[in-house]
Amino acid sequence: MQLLSSAIGRKVVMAATGLFMLLFVIVHLLGNSTIFAGPNAINAYAEKLQSLGPFVWAFRLFLLFMLFFHVIYGILLTLENAAANPGKYAVKKMLKATFASETMIWTGLLLLAFIVYHLLQFTVRVTPDVVLGNDAKGRFDVYTMVAGSLKIAPIAMVYVAAMVTLFLHLSHGIQSIFQSAGLSNDKALPQYTVIGKLLAVIFLVGYSAIPVLILAGILAK
Amino acid sequence: MSDHTSEHRTMTLKLIVWRQKGQNEPGRFETYVARNITEHHSFLEMLDVVNEELIREGKDPIAFDHDCREGICGMCSTVVNGVPHGGQERTTVCQLHMRKFKDGDTIYLEPWRARAFPILKDLVVDRGALDKIIQAGGYTSCHTGGVPDANSTPVSKAESDYAMDAAECIGCGACVAACPNGAAMLFTGAKISQFAALPQGQVEAPERVAGMVNAMQECGFGNCTNHYECQAACPKGIHVKFIARMNREFLKALFRAKSGSHTFIGEGQD
């Protein structure tokens, strides 16, 4: 399998799995935004999703599969790269590399930890601080669960910190998808870079707005 | 005639140089003083001056690679103050001049550092790995004999310019030295792209990309993570678009192999 063993093949795997997770990040932000429309909107949205049954599980398994390959190959490539460059320079001046590009493995591992935390909290629903229940219409009350959890300052701060990490990871990662998949050239690359950074900022602001506004008492009173 | 005032203005510089007796010997930094350096000296001429003094003192001169000294051969290879070739845009270290430095400057000199480039002595490394990549497919096979008629194989101006931009690579290895991953993807990408753009390169295209990428891995080079340090350090300004082109050529070859129109080198060997 050249796609999994060759230097370029594995980069393409990183790009493809990254792309699917990026698409999920976009969809997830749109879904989350229903919270701005109030309890009814997000609870209705959540029930609609849950009613899809097997599709939800197929979607979850697919994403888990993407995540698995992205993490495994990310770690593998990082170890290989460290081995390929063992003799460090006494003086090394970076000309183009950025903090984001140099810390991909660390922001990636932090995001993995966050994903585990986030799934435990809102998917498995391990929420010792919040009483879970149904809303007036008999649907599971996602709104109360989210608002109740994010009113707690340390939890809200974990979410904001995770979104800063996501911002760093994607501000390098998005343009990387196109370059690694061979979809780039001298004219397109600067555009991918701008679009990638713009999307990363939108995710940072959009996602962080929820914990920040809840903590500030503006979104959920 | 000559400008006597500038002739007399000389610099004294402190050099901190990586010294290593042989491939498997331990290396360390040694400090030297470069005296009587004028702004007209090239960087390598400055090293010549230092070496002449070392030889006079009966010491081992600093070994460094060089050949044409006009920026086209790709032999010179020294990391100056943390940047391969010294950091002047599109300049090999032989074309770097001492007017870029100030009297009293401290300059760090290190060899290219990458697993695939073992240090032979001081600042000299073995870049034979790049030759192995070329041997694995960096050529076209053609009939010998009479000179073909001009334009018998049409090549558009745009394509020939693109191929020339890729072919500008002098194979010095600065891209590898600059890469935090010790990857040779800019070099390999440029060598693949120059053929991929031309009709003469089409026949062996799938075998070329498969073979050269394989050789790159076997030589112990790392993997690209898109820092683009390579392009910034390249004395010929080779663009990272050629890495994207290589990736594209690789995928094209892979899908053609899957559809059975040719065999992919390395397939079934694991």
Outline the fold blueprint.
The complex is a heterodimer of chains A (221) and B (270).
Chain A: H1 2-5, H2 7-32, H3 39-50, H4 54-84, H5 99-102, H6 104-122, H7 142-150, H8 153-180, H9 188-215
Helix pairs in contact in A: 2-4, 2-8, 2-9, 4-6, 6-8, 8-9
Chain B: H1 4-8, E1 11-20, E2 27-37, H2 43-56, E3 79-80, E4 83-84, E5 106-110, E6 119-121, E7 124-125, H3 128-135, H4 157-167, H5 174-178, H6 185-196, H7 205-218, H8 229-233, H9 241-258
Helix pairs in contact in B: 3-7, 4-6, 6-7, 6-9, 7-9
Strand content of chain A: under 5%
Radius of gyration of chain A: 20 Å
Number of domains of chain A: 1
Largest interface: A-B, 44 and 58 residues
Regions of chain A with pLDDT < 50 over 5+ consecutive residues? none
What is the CA–CA distance across the termini of chain B? 69 Å
Largest sheet of chain A: none
CATH architecture of chain A: Up-down Bundle
The biggest sheet of chain B, with number of strands, parallel, antiparallel or mixed sense and barrel status, is:
5 strands, mixed
What this model shows, in words?
The complex is a heterodimer of chains A (221) and B (270). Chain A is mainly α. Chain A is 73% helix and 0% strand. Chain A contains 9 helices and no strands. In chain A, helix 2 (7-32) packs across helix 4, helix 2 crosses helix 8 (153-180) and helix 2 (7-32) runs parallel beside helix 9 (188-215). The model of chain A has no long low-confidence stretch (mean pLDDT 95). With 270 residues, chain B is an alpha+beta fold. Chain B folds into 2 domains: 4-120, Roll (Ubiquitin-like (UB roll)); 127-141 and 153-258, Fumarate Reductase Iron-sulfur Protein, Chain B, domain 2. Chain B contains 9 helices and 7 strands. Chain B has helices at residues 4-8, 43-56, 128-135, 157-167, 174-178, 185-196, 205-218, 229-233, 241-258, and strands spanning 11-20, 27-37, 79-80, 83-84, 106-110, 119-121, 124-125. In chain B, helix 3 packs antiparallel against helix 7 (205-218). The longest helix of chain B is centred in the C-terminal third of the chain and has 18 residues, at 241-258. Chain B is elongated. Chain B starts with a helix and ends in a 12-residue tail after the last helix.
